[in-house]
Amino acid sequence: MNAAVMAYGLTIGGREGAKRALSEFWRRISESAAWSPLQPYFLDHLPQIGSLESSPAFLFFDIMTRLLSPYQLNPFDYNPLRDLLEKTVNFDRLRKESAVKLFLCATNVRTGKVRIFENHELTASAVLASGCLPFLFKAVEIDGEAYWDGGYMGNPAIFPIIYGCQSTDVLIIHINPIVREEIPQTAATISNRLNEISFNSSLMREMRAIAFVSRLIEDKKIVSDDMKKVLIHAIEADAFFKDLGVASKLNADWKFLTHLRDVGRTAAEDWLTSHFDDLGSRSTIDIRQKYL
């Protein structure tokens, strides 16, 4: 969703347009979430809200999503995100005029294969499919196939960026910690850690393939114009995200969202200050140490 909204903002108004579109989109999400029964429990707008895992509202919500599927809880498939996306993005214009290439990844529920939606295929349904969490939303149907979140098969899918773009640099933005020192002991934290591992596993598989091909190129065992050495970079704020409780993923309070935005901006600015000159010349992380 962020990718589609940012691309549309860039298309209609450049960098300022992208900032404005993202701000409007998340403001609408925050306003929509104000009606959630969970929202009153996010008191004081604190970023560290792990204690909310024991709140009655969160526990009730957690139990309900484990006992009943979205097909039972939401038989009419009401998804407010669809309305918010369509209010923010003119998908017809995005398909025809997008300022950047987009590759949105979804998981085919029936086959288990990855599906990449490119610019000419972008619709609200494609965007929703790429972020469809199966315990919260019905699978999104497109052309007779059902799709769940793309993170199960590509988080993100890097191969279309390698083969479909000229740049040799791939910049990964981490929003899930790869390493957690504490062993989860509650049902909620165990489920959360399983999700993190599942979503990170697809990234690690692609990193393993990239590391393998890069070594062959370095050793001159592959000499082909079809193969290029990929430079990998990463922006992360693991120290911050590790302190967030599971319930924070449901917090759409505007002050909390802008706090996340500011943390992200600081991490990005720090990375740019340290590594901007490395772009196009070398990777700024050790793939084997980080991902393998």
Verbal overview:
With 292 residues, the chain is of the alpha+beta class. Helices cover 48% and strands 10% of the residues. It is built from eleven helices and six strands. α1 (2-33) packs across α4 (80-88) and α1 packs antiparallel against α5 (91-97). It is globular.
Helix and strand layout, with pairings?
Layout: H1 2-33, H2 56-67, H3 70-73, H4 80-88, H5 91-97, E1 103-108, E2 114-118, H6 124-130, E3 140-142, E4 145-149, H7 159-164, E5 169-173, H8 187-218, E6 231-235, H9 238-241, H10 254-275, H11 287-291
Parallel strand pairs: 5-6
Antiparallel strand pairs: 1-2, 1-4, 3-4
Helix pairs in contact: 1-4, 1-5
End-to-end Cα distance: 29 Å
| Helix-residue proportion | 40-55%
Radius of gyration (Å): 20 Å
What's the shape? globular
How many β strands by DSSP? Answer: 6
Jot down its keywords.
292 residues; alpha+beta; 4-stranded antiparallel β-sheet; two-stranded parallel ribbon; 11 helices; 6 strands; globular
Concise synopsis of the structure shown:
With 292 residues, the protein is an alpha+beta fold. It is 48% helix and 10% strand. The strands form two sheets. It has a four-stranded antiparallel sheet, covered by helices on one side.
